[in-house]
C-alpha cells in the first residue's frame, strides 16, 4: 500500500529558523508550539538488533521526561511510543504490553545502550483544518551530533521535517508544492549520524561472517574462519568485563568453543606445535568461563522456574535467587581476573600472530595445501556418519553418557557446517543446519535440565547450611529439581522420534548429496 | 491485534466516552491503536474532529471494493488512528444480510490490519443486530459499560444470553461501572450486587463527572485535556485493568 511519506529538506546554514518559520506561517494556517531544546538518544543493543530489524529506538528527553519512540528506519512509520520516567536497561524493565512483547522478540536478554546522541533545537508547527484538526506536522530543526568518544560536537545543520497525517493527502500536497524550491535531504538524521561517527552496525554482529571459495587452500581458509571467530571474541570482551548483559559472555564463550572445535576437527592443516598449545590454552579459557555462564543461565531462567511452582511456594525461591546473584558477582570477578592475567594476554597476542603469519613455505602439513572444499566435505561427512552411528546405537535403556557424547558430536558437526557455509548453496546448507538444529535442541534440553537440577541441588544444600531455618526454601528447591528431572525425562522420551526424523532416509540423501563428493 | 468491543445493548451508557479515552491510553502505553466508529451517529469521529464519512460508504467497505487501509484517518495523537463513522452504516445490516447471514465478514475486512495495530477498539452502536453479531465474532473481549441500576442488570443478562445463543460462549464479557454516582443509594447497592452476579466485573469504574460532559464542547478527550482530573485517573485505572486481562 502506498502511504504518504514524510519528507525532509535541508535548510541553508545562514537561514535563520525563526525567519523561515514566519514565512511559512504567512502562507499556511499553522499553529505553533513553544520552541524547545531536547536531547535525542538512539538506543540499541551492542550488536544493533533494533537496527537489524529495520527499526530505530529514539528517546526524546525533554525536561524530566522521556518519550521513547520506535519507528521503521526506511519510511519512519511509527511502531509505537511510550512515556517513561527512566529509560529501561532491559526489555523486562518495560511495562507489560504489546510494545514490550514486540521489542522482546528482537532484543531478548540484551541491554539497551545509548548509541547516538543528538541535541536538537526544534520549532514545532501544525497545520489545522477548518475543524481545528491537525492535518500535517512540520518541524524546523537544528541538530548537533555529540561524539562521546572524542568529546566533540558536529553540526548536522538545519532541516525541515514534514510529517503527514494519515488520510490527509491534500494539505500535504499543497504544502509540499509550496516547498518545491527546497533541497530534499537524502539521508535521515540517524543515518547521517552513523556515517559521521563511522559506525557500521553489521560489524558488531556475533554471527560468523566469512566468505571463502572452494579452491582456496585449507590453511588460508581455516585461518579466515579463525580470524572472524577471534573478532567476535575480542569485541565481546569489554561488555563481558563491564557485565553489561549476559550475551557478551555467551558470545565470547561460543567463539572459544568454535575455535576449539576447529582446532580439534580440522586435522593436518597446521603443524602440531603451536596447535597443541592453542588447544590447551583455549580449553583452559573455556573452562574458566563456564561457571559464570551456568549462573547466567539459572538467573535468566529464574522467572520460568518460579512460574512452575505453585503460587504459594514461589516466594520461597527468593533466597536462591539472592544466592545465585551473589555467586554470579563472585564468578564475574574471577573471570575479570582471568582476562587480566598474563596467560590470557599472551594467548591473545600469540593467536593473533599465528593468524597473521604467512603460510609456511617448507614442508607444510599434509592437508594444508589441499582445496578447502575437499577438506570441508570430508570432515563434515565423517562427523555426520559419526552422529548417525552414535544415535542409532541409543536405545531406551542406554546410559545417559551416550546422549552426552552424541550431543558433543552434533555440536562439532554444526560448527563445521557453519564455518564452511559459504562453500555450499545457501538454501541447501541452511536446510541441513535446520535439520541438525532440531536434533540438537532435544539433546540440549536433555543436557541443560540435567545440569540445572544437579547444580541447583547443590545450591539448595548450600542454602540450608547457611541458614538451617530456611526449610521452606529447601522444599521449594526440591520441587524445582523434581520438575527439572521430569522435563529431562520428557526430553529423553522425545529423543527417539527426534532422531528418527533426523536420520530419515530422505534427510540422509540430502546430506550425501551435499557433502559426499566422489 | 487484539479486538476490544465496547458494547452494550443500551445507548447513552458511556460506550463512546470510554472507547475514545481508552484508545488514547492504549497508545500512551506503547500500543499501535485503531478505533472504528461503527455508530452512524459518529460520536467518536466527532471527538477526534474527523469527518464522519468513508469513501463509498459501508457498501464499499463490506464488499471490500475499497481497501480498509484507505479509510483510515490519523487522529491528532501519534499511533492512534480511526476508521470514521458513515451515515450509511445505518444500512450495514442489510448489506451484511445479503451475504447469507455470514457473521465472519468483519474478520475478512479487518485481516489486512492484523499486523499493523496492537489494539482495535470497536465503538459499537447500541442494539442487537447483524452488525453486533459480526462485532462479537471478531472480538477478543467485550468491554461493557453499565450504569449501576436494575435496568442495566437486565441488559447485561440479555447480552450474555445473546453471546450464548451464537456459539460465543468463550467470548468474555467484562462489565464495568459507568457514570457511577456514589451519592445515590441505588448506584451503591447495584455496585455491590454486580460483581456477585458477574465475576468478570472490573474493579475500576468511571464516576459521574461533569468533566466528561465537557468533552463534547472541547472536542477533546478528558485523559488528554485534564489528565489529572478524577475521571481521567479513573480511565487510567480502567485501562490498566483491561490491558492486563486483554493482552
Ligand atoms: N462518566 C460520565 N459522567 C457524566 N457524563 C457522562 C459520563 N460518561 C458519559 N457521559 C455523557 O453521557 C452521554 C452519553 O455518553 P456516550 O459515551 O456517548 O454513551 P454511548 O456511546 O453509550 O451512547 C454523553 O453526553 C456523555 O458526555
Ligand atoms: Mg456511542
Could you explain how this protein is built, in words?
The complex is a heterodimer of chains A (518) and B (247). Chain A has two domains: 7-202, Hypothetical Protein Pfu-838710-001, CATH 2.40.320.10; 206-515, CHAD domain (Alpha solenoid), CATH 1.40.20.10. In chain A, 56% of the residues lie in helices and 16% in strands. Chain A is built from 17 helices and ten strands. In chain A, strand 8 (134-147) and strand 9 form a beta hairpin. The longest helix of chain A has 41 residues, at 426-466. The two termini of chain A are 51 Å apart. With 247 residues, chain B is an alpha/beta fold. Helices cover 43% and strands 13% of the residues of chain B. Chain B contains eleven helices and seven strands. In chain B, helix 1 packs across helix 11. Chain B is globular. The chains are: A alpha+beta (518), B alpha/beta (247). The complex binds adenosine-5'-diphosphate and magnesium ion.
Amino acid at each position: 500500500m502506498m502511504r504518504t511519506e514524510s519528507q525532509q529538506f535541508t535548510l541553508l546554514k545562514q537561514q535563520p529558523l525563526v525567519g523561515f518559520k514566519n514565512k511559512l506561517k504567512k502562507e499556511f494556517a499553522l499553529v505553533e508550539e513553544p520552541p524547545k531544546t531536547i536531547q535525542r538518544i538512539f538506543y540499541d543493543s551492542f550488536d544493533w538488533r533494533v537496527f537489524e530489524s529495520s527499526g530505530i529506538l529514539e528517546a526524546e528527553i525533554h525536561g524530566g521526561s522521556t518519550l521513547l519512540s520506535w519507528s521503521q528506519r526506511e519510511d519512519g512509520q511509527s511502531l509505537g511510543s511510550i512515556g517513561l520516567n527512566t529509560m529501561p536497561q532491559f526489555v523486562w524493565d518495560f511495562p507489560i504490553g504489546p510494545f514490550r512483547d514486540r521489542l522482546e522478540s528482537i532484543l531478548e536478554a540484551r541491554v539497551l545502550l545509548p548509541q547516538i546522541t543528538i541535541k536538537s533545537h526544534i520549532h514545532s508547527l501544525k497545520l489545522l483544518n477548518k475543524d481545528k484538526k491537525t492535518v500535517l506536522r512540520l518541524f524546523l530543526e537544528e541538530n548537533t551530533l555529540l561524539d562521546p568518544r572524542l568529546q566533540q560536537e558536529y553540526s548536522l545543520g538545519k532541516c525541515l521535517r514534514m510529517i503527514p497525517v494519515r488520510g490527509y493527502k491534500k494539505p500535504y500536497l499543497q504544502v509540499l508544492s509550496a516547498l518545491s524550491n527546497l533541497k530534499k535531504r537524502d539521508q535521515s538524521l540517524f543515518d547521517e549520524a552513523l556515517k559521521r561517527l563511522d559506525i557500521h552496525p553489521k560489524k558488531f554482529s556475533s554471527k560468523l561472517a566469512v566468505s571463502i571459495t572452494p579452491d582456496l587452500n585449507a590453511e588460508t581458509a581455516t585461518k579466515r574462519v579463525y580470524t572472524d571467530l577471534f573478532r567476535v571474541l575480542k569485541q565481546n570482551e569489554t561488555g563481558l568485563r563491564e557485565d553489561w548483559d549476559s550475551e557478551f559472555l555467551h558470545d565470547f564463550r561460543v567463539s572459544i568453543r568454535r575455535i576449539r572445535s576447529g582446532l580439534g576437527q580440522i586435522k593436518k592443516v597446521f603443524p602440531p606445535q603451536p596447535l597443541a598449545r592453542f588447544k590447551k590454552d583455549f580449553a583452559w579459557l573455556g573452562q574458566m568461563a563456564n561457571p559464570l555462564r551456568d549462573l547466567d543461565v539459572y538467573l535468566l531462567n529464574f522467572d520460568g522456574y518460579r512460574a512452575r511452582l505453585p503460587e504459594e511456594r514461589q516466594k520461597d525461591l527468593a533466597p536462591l535467587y539472592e544466592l545465585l546473584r551473589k555467586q554470579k558477582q563472585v564468578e564475574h570477578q574471577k573471570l575479570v581476573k582471568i582476562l587480566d592475567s598474563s596467560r590470557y594476554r599472551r594467548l591473545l597476542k600469540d593467536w593473533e600472530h599465528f593468524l597473521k603469519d604467512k603460510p609456511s613455505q617448507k614442508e607444510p602439513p599434509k592437508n594444508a595445501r589441499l582445496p578447502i572444499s575437499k577438506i570441508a566435505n570430508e570432515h563434515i561427512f565423517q562427523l555426520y556418519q559419526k552422529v548417525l552411528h552414535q544415535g542409532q546405537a541409543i536405545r531406551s535403556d542406554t546410559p545417559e553418557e551416550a546422549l552426552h557424547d552424541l550431543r558433543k558430536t552434533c555440536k562439532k558437526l554444526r560448527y563445521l557446517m557453519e564455518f564452511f557455509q559459504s562453500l555450499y548453496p545457501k538454501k541447501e546448507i541452511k536446510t541441513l543446519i535446520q535439520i541438525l538444529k532440531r536434533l540438537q535442541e532435544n539433546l540440549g534440553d536433555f543436557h541443560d535440565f540435567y545440569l540445572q537440577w544437579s547444580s541447583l541441588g547443590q545450591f539448595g544444600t548450600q542454602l540450608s547450611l547457611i541458614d538451617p531455618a530456611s526449610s521452606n526454601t529447601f522444599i521449594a528447591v526440591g520441587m524445582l529439581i523434581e520438575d527439572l528431572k521430569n522435563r529431562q525425562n520428557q526430553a529423553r522420551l522425545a529423543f527417539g522420534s527426534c532422531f528418527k526424523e533426523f536420520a530419515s532416509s530422505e534427510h540422509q540423501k540430502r546430506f550425501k548429496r551435499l557433502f559426499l563428493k566422489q | 491485534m487484539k479486538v476490544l468491543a465496547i458494547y452494550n445493548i443500551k445507548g447513552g451508557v458511556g460506550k463512546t466516552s470510554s472507547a475514545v479515552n481508552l484508545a488514547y491510553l492504549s497508545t500512551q502505553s506503547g500500543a499501535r491503536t485503531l478505533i472504528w466508529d461503527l455508530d452512524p451517529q459518529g460520536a467518536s469521529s466527532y471527538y477526534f474532529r474527523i469527518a464522519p464519512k468513508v469513501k463509498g460508504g459501508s457498501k464499499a467497505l463490506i464488499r471490500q471494493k475499497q481497501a480498509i487501509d484507505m479509510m483510515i484517518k490519523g487522529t491528532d495523537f501519534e499511533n492512534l488512528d480511526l476508521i470514521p463513522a458513515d451515515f450509511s452504516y445505518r444500512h450495514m445490516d442489510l448489506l451484511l444480510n445479503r451475504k447469507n447471514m455470514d457473521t465472519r465478514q468483519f474478520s475478512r475486512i479487518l485481516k489486512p490490519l492484523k499486523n499493523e495495530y496492537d489494539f482495535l477498539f470497536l465503538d459499537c452502536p447500541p442494539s442487537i443486530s447483524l452488525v453486533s453479531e459480526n462485532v462479537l465474532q471478531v472480538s477478543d473481549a467485550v468491554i461493557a459499560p453499565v450504569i449501576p441500576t436494575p435496568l442495566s442488570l437486565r441488559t447485561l443478562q440479555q447480552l450474555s444470553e445473546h453471546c450464548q445463543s451464537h456459539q460465543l460462549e468463550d467470548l468474555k464479557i467484562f462489565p464495568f461501572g459507568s457514570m457511577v454516582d456514589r451519592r445515590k443509594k441505588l448506584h451503591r447497592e447495584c455496585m455491590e450486587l454486580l460483581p456477585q452476579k458477574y465475576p468478570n466485573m472490573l474493579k475500576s469504574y468511571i464516576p459521574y463527572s461533569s468533566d466528561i460532559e465537557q468533552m463534547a464542547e472541547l472536542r477533546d478527550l478528558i485523559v488528554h485535556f485534564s489528565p489529572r482530573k478524577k475521571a481521567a485517573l479513573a480511565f487510567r485505572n480502567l485501562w490498566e485493568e483491561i490491558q492486563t486481562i486483554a493482552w
